[in-house]
Design goal:
The chain is α+β, with helices and mostly antiparallel strands. It is built from 16 helices and 46 strands. The longest helix has 22 residues. It is globular. The chain binds 2-acetamido-2-deoxy-beta-D-glucopyranose (7 copies). Keywords: Carbohydrate metabolism, Cell wall biogenesis/degradation, Glycoprotein, Glycosidase, Hydrolase, Polysaccharide degradation, Secreted, Signal.
């Protein structure tokens, strides 16, 4: 079957790319008739209309739909929902169970809205503009909307050199190119993170920033699409959606004229605020593909301790599995009792353990593989097009099936597998979980003829020798329902789902949609097919896995790290940036990657593989990367099977760099935890590009080699290979060196020299009060017993500063007690006010006031003079250091007189 099918795919793909070369011509598309608005009803907060084809159909990629329904809803003062559907057919839409739609305010309407919807009836076009200034943000004028069964097109004009961010997942610059640039949304296994191509996940949201304000546009659609940014038509920049299914479901977000972080919060209102993660998960994680056996793993743990480099969590890749089958251990290389011994050792030392879980499950009828047998009994596998036999792929264990996350028993099945294998009493008591290959990736189109894929299939560890478990153990109390809710599923009988007329620029294999993944005609229990839901597979595995982890340890926060995401995934899970190489360019581009996830898409628990995954790193690169990685929210060192060992202790410079940067990171861990708590509350970004804080400073718009860690700590790493200097930009504000608190006045670029390989420039932005631990510790458990100190970093404009601290037990989803403190500094008076429900059990050891002009005559704590020997002023740096040594359980005031 495969050779013929492959040939068919290849031919159709060729034809389709020919077709798109012809028809994607903007002149051809702009000559389409578009629509006319009829029967317009304006209810104030809502507008509806029929859109009727406005002339002779152009049928570029299928027949134009004759009549559409337009529905415009003012959902709140900052959000307009614009939806265009075909009322005559049941078209696919992202299911509510995947992304529940945001609620609208009853009082919303054009009178109170910050943005307004406008339209012309004939030819129909619409625009969204700012209510106050009438500045147009989005306009389809002169670009007719095209709506065909397998092709939707919407295009807007934007200013020349528009500042566009988002549309991830990509490995391109944070500020996107605007010349002949295509962002393709179609999840794929993208080893090497090639630039300009589709990667693992999909976030069809863009932010556009202007000096007059920042706004956002979210297209809620999970079908394959190309979003094109271009400037070759001489009319500024254009942004064009080319979507191969679903409906046009836009959320226009007003953002703000002065504070871009408002827009981040508005996006969180639509897709959900991010999950809080356990405090310990901010500790350092070590992993690699290729730890040969349990002895290897145990040695890495003891080597870290011997090197004095904090190790919070040890990870194991697929190496632990028996024949690479999930929910198994290799009895010879990773015998269960020895792995349990490792877990016990880690837990006794306040450390954690995490294992990899893949979605692809070995297809092993009659072999006694419990997971396969139980899943088969429950009938939870994704089905082939005919809906009767499981869809097969080829992944790590060889031929595999894939769970159907839409199946009504999928969660029960997954919970049960987690309870059996990750059982504290009889299995492996993991603390978090890592999910991979969930695009879903398949090495080839089964049955594979591709020699590369065949070779990978055969590259298996030695076979197991122990006897398999009883495959017939009943687990489900009742027979799984075999009902399939097909009635509501969209009808694709007339569509070409293998090779739609418009070919998106998929870079997997030959470019066919089904290449190296589940085929587009594979069927879910609810009747949906992968053509529509492909981009949701990783997201659904994420939410199901998070559910299974929450069921294992009810009431506790979970850490799930996934590879594939969709809009909204961050509400449940974190993400690593996937498989790249140990290169200096990837070291740098990881910053744009984490800024996208943590600054825009609401997936703040994010990090790149430190020191690089594929290929070999070296001492200098790994040292620089250890220090940059200390400011990824999720900090993990991870390497590929064929790469040299790259644990931080392998080289002296790298080891020292890691110790230094980890010390800084751990001192900031409560500040990071507070930023996550704020993000959970209102969607405020955990990482920020410079322009979020300096939206009028055009110098900042393209900077993606520096970033803010939390609201006010600026990270400015050395970027160039083996270099000890870097050009950094400090915007118009004071920036205080993290260690010395010496201030630099910003407003220009600075050439930093002699940045040795064990240090990274970290500065505190003026206007901040930071709660720091006095020093890093080996584990976060020990860290939480360490005293706090406060740093006051006054702003340039008015010398004020403020900050906050949120603390709880670090693990409970709903903590019984919490402590929430705010810090405000003005005119020599630091006011620490708050609620102290959670006992910190530690002291505030001191306060350091930066940029103090002269030594004060006296310092008081709650009105009482602080002894002179507890006050030290350094005139060279302007730092006033006041020792307090008071229990951190109530509010206090420190005044400089
Ligand atoms: C498009 O419309 C024409 C004429 O109405 C019809 O013959 C043809 O089958 C349609 N094509 C598709 C793909 O539906
Ligand atoms: C709204 O659209 C109408 C019709 O095209 C146009 O005359 C009017 O100027 C637009 N209003 C704004 C504020 O753009
Ligand atoms: C745009 O990019 C494509 C793909 O990289 C290339 O083939 C084409 O020549 C480019 N077109 C222009 C006008 O630069
Ligand atoms: C369903 O499709 C699969 C994959 O193409 C095939 O192996 C199987 O025989 C088919 N089953 C039936 C009942 O047609
Ligand atoms: C590296 O630079 C830092 C910061 O300037 C300095 O404290 C440290 O002593 C330097 N290390 C070495 C080995 O020179
Ligand atoms: C902590 O503060 C208490 C007083 O509140 C003091 O007695 C104690 O010595 C302090 N501990 C340290 C380590 O400074
Ligand atoms: C951003 C970056 O450096 N990406 C590189 C990742 O690895 C591939 C090779 O597989 C390079 O082509 C990319 O440039």
């Amino acid at each position: 079957m495969y050779p013929r099918a492959a040939l068919k795919f290849a031919l159709l793909a060729q034809l389709a790319s020919l077709a798109s070369a012809t028809y994607s011509d903007p002149k051809v598309l702009d000559a389409c008739p578009g629509y006319q608005a009829k029967n317009v009803f304006n209810y104030g907060h809502k507008l509806t209309a029929d859109l009727v084809l406005g002339g002779t159909a152009c049928n570029v990629f299928g027949n134009d739909t004759e009549k559409l329904k337009l529905e415009v809803t003012y959902e709140n003062k900052d959000r307009i929902h614009v939806k265009i559907t075909d009322p005559a057919t049941n078209r696919y839409e992202v299911p509510e169970e995947v992304l529940s739609r945001p609620k609208a305010d009853l009082s919303a309407g054009p009178q109170t809205s910050n943005i307004l919807f406008n339209y012309t009836a004939s030819p129909f076009s619409f625009s969204v503009y700012r209510a106050k200034t009438h500045e147009v943000l989005f306009s389809t004028a002169s670009h007719p909307i095209i709506f065909e069964p397998q092709y939707l097109r919407v295009k807007t004009n934007l200013p020349a050199n528009a500042n566009i961010y988002g549309l991830g997942e990509h490995s391109d610059s944070f500020r996107l190119p605007t010349h002949n640039y295509t962002r393709t949304m179609w999840s794929r296994d993208a080893y090497g993170l090639p630039q300009g191509q589709n990667l693992y996940g999909n976030h069809p949201i863009y932010f556009e920033h202007r000096t007059t304000g920042t706004h956002g546009v979210f297209l809620l659609n999970s079908n394959g699409m190309d979003i094109k940014l271009d400037d070759t038509e001489g009319t500024g920049t254009t942004l064009e959606y080319n979507v191969i299914g679903g409906v046009l479901d836009f959320y226009f977000l007003a953002g703000s004229e002065s504070d871009p972080t408002e827009l981040v919060r508005q996006y969180a209102d639509v897709v959900g605020t991010p999950a809080e993660v356990p405090y310990w998960s901010f500790g350092f994680h070590q992993c690699r593909f290729g730890y040969a056996n349990y002895i290897d793993v145990s040695q890495v743990i003891t080597n870290y301790a011997a090197a004095g480099i904090p190790l919070e969590t040890m990870w194991t890749d697929i190496d632990y599995m028996d024949r690479r089958r999930v929910f198994t251990v290799d009895p010879q290389y990773f015998p269960l009792n020895r792995v349990r011994e490792i877990v016990d050792y880690l837990h006794a030392h306040d450390q954690k353990y995490i294992l990899m879980t893949d979605p692809a499950i070995a297809y092993a009828p009659g072999e006694g593989y419990g997971t396969f047998d139980r899943g088969t009994a429950a009938d939870v596998w994704l089905k082939a097009a005919n809906g009767s036999s499981p869809f097969l792929g080829a992944v790590w264990p060889g031929v595999t099936v894939f769970p159907d996350w839409f199946h009504p028993m999928a969660q029960t099945f997954w919970n049960n597998e987690f309870n059996l294998f990750y059982n504290p009493v009889s299995g492996i008591d993991i603390d978090g979980v890592w999910i991979d290959m969930n695009e879903p990736a398949s090495f080839c189109n089964y049955p594979c003829t591709d020699p590369f894929a065949q070779a990978r299939q055969q590259n298996l560890p030695p076979p197991r020798t122990s006897s398999p478990p009883d495959p017939n153990t009943p687990i489900f109390g009742e027979a799984p329902p075999s009902v399939r809710k097909r009635a509501s599923a969209p009808d694709h009988s007339k569509d070409n789902v293998q090779s739609p007329p418009y070919a998106i620029a998929n870079h997997a294999g030959s470019g066919a949609l089904s290449d190296r993944t589940a085929y587009t005609d594979a069927r879910h229990a609810n009747g949906l097919i992968e053509y529509d839901t492909h981009n949701l597979y990783g997201h659904m595995m994420s939410t199901t896995t998070q559910g299974a982890m929450a069921a294992r340890r009810p009431g506790l926060k979970t850490l799930v790290i996934t590879r594939s995401t969709f809009a909204g995934s961050g509400a449940k899970v974190g993400k690593w940036l996937g498989d790249n190489l140990s290169t200096w360019s990837q070291y740098k581009s990881s910053i744009a990657g984490i800024l996208g996830m943590a600054g825009i898409y609401q997936v703040p628990m994010v990090g790149a593989d430190i020191c690089g995954f594929g290929g070999n790193t070296n001492e200098n690169m790994c040292a620089r990367w250890a220090m940059l990685g200390a400011f990824y929210p999720f900090m993990r060192n991870h390497a590929d099977l064929s790469a040299i060992s790259q644990e931080f202790y392998r080289w002296p410079t790298t080891a020292q760099a890691a110790r230094n940067a980890l010390d800084t990171r751990y001192r900031l861990l409560d500040y990071l935890y507070t930023a996550f708590h704020q993000a959970k509350k209102d969607g405020s970004p955990v990482l920020r590009p410079l322009w979020y804080a300096f939206p009028k400073d055009t110098n900042t718009f393209a900077i993606d080699s520096q970033f803010f860690f939390g609201p006010s700590v600026l990270i400015s790493p050395v970027i160039d290979a083996d270099s000890t200097s870097v050009d950094v930009y400090y915007p118009h504000e004071l920036f205080y060196d993290f260690h010395t608190l010496a201030p630099t006045t910003g407003g220009s670029s600075v050439h930093l020299t002699n940045v040795n390989f064990t240090s990274i420039p970290v500065s505190i932005m003026g206007g901040a009060v930071l709660p720091l631990r006095t020093q890093g510790q080996y584990t976060t458990t020990a860290l939480r017993k360490t005293d706090f100190e406060l740093v006051v970093a006054p702003s340039l404009a008015d010398g004020r500063a403020h900050g906050s601290l949120y603390l709880d037990d670090g693990v409970s989803v709903v903590p019984l007690m919490h402590t929430s403190v705010s810090f405000a500094y003005e005119k020599g008076r630091l006011n620490v006010q708050g609620w102290y429900g959670y006992a910190t059990g530690v002291n505030v050891s001191r306060v350091r006031f930066a940029n103090t002009k002269s030594a004060p005559k006296s310092v008081t704590l709650n009105g009482k003079t602080v002894a002179a020997n507890k006050v030290a002023f350094d005139s060279s740096t302007g730092v006033l250091d006041v020792t307090l040594g008071i229990s951190f359980k109530s509010s206090f005031v420190v005044e400089l007189h």
